Amino acid sequence: MYDFLKRLGIEEVNSGVFSDRWLEGKGGEVTSYNPANGEAIAKVRLADRDEYEQVVAVAERSFAAWRTKPAPLRGQVVREMGEVLRAHKDDLGRLVTLEMGKIYQEGLGEIQEIVDIIDYAVGLSRQLYGFTMHSERPGHRMYDQYHPMGVVGVITAFNFPAAVWGWNAMIAAVCGDSVIWKPSLKTPLVAVAMQNIFAPVLEKHGVPGLFSLATGHDDVVGETLVNDHRVPLISATGSVRMGKIVGAKVAARLGRSILELGGNNAIILTPEANLELAIPAIVFGAVGTAGQRCTTTRRLIVHESLVDAVTERLVKAYGQVRIGDPLDENTLMGPLIDEDAVQQMTKALEQVKSEGGEVLCGGERVDRAGFYVTPAIAKAKNSFDIVQNETFAPILYVIPYSDFDEAIGYQNGVPQGLSSAVFTSNLLEAEKFLGHQGSDCGIANVNIGTSGAEIGGAFGGEKETGGGRESGSDSWKAYMRRQTNTINYSKELPLAQGIKFDL
Ligand code: UN1
User: Which domain holds residue 238?
Assistant: First the structure.
């Protein structure tokens, strides 16, 4: 057991169930593996239904107490969480790397996203604005306000095992909500560590159950949480397949959901692109996090005049990507999460060939323990079935175009709509791409890549990406209930719309 794990409170066997204290975890256990060598790191015990019930009951009570604290005071508690997070940043970044396999710089970057969202949330706690409107009735005042909503269920994926919870939990906390976290069973230790470091702060402020943890199987914890009418909002990140199930179940009870599902993100490279910017952006976007971000660049829509030169440069750059132990600071690409991910990548490359594409480089398994592959580039058509689907692996499909409208058609011609980018120095192309007939994605960038969004913006996408928005801008509104208030300070009772109702 590494020393840094002990500093995060991780033991050989851990409970993954926290209400306002650690419960036993009676729903079996999972082993967390290090994808860099396939070895077991530690075990995590899971929630059974009774324990889930305990977690929800505490979350409801915590909400009832927490919502009475003025929002700026809630912000101060969140600020203190930022202090403990900063103190543990290196250890947490290392744990993200150990358990998920992204390189250490990216592990740190992920924790930094939570530090940043905390700073954002602290400022937000003095805002949470509603508008005031002018009433049509004399002696009346009308305004809208946002109230805390309740218990928020946060379901996260393995690829951002900490940050996605952080965006949700910190915003929910300043909004006055309590949070139940159901983490991925591939990365449960990160969740245990996060709970460990924040618990003393919450305890100190008398709300030990504000953030709780219900690690468990989908059919025990997942289903129950999603169907639970005591949880008015479910924020779920993961595959389109998962999102369709979660979205339908939450909608069936008329609950609310924030869905952040798959992406199929493209960069358009026009003849007026600055390739000195574009090439590193493409490589980072496609290869970073071993292609396991929802914002990963999966398609390169490139003008036909540039295809040969650009693919040559990319193949050369791919040959220089240092693949290896993600904790080694020279490494640029770590392993995939597990064996299944390697198989999915191999299958996708077989399929692109069978559909008539050509693999230009990569896709081989690296001969060492762990789940390492070489990143791949394949020439393809946008219409290929395999190109229409998100494969969570470092595969970049190169799709030539001749006319800019055709490029935008390809960009939009997939079921998903998360992130998109164009590289061009041509103002008309850039503006067209950002205009209403341009990119149909939730994120559209000019001269930067598709991944690595800042927390200050609203994060999420359209179509099968699910339509939810998390993180910055006014995403907080989804975590509160909205109320319109009209106050009559006159001595009359005028009705709206000029209606007379004389008794
Ligand atoms: C995700 O992959 O689920 O924009 C989130 C990015 C990161 C977040 C990705 N800030 O790439």
Answer: 3-261+466-483
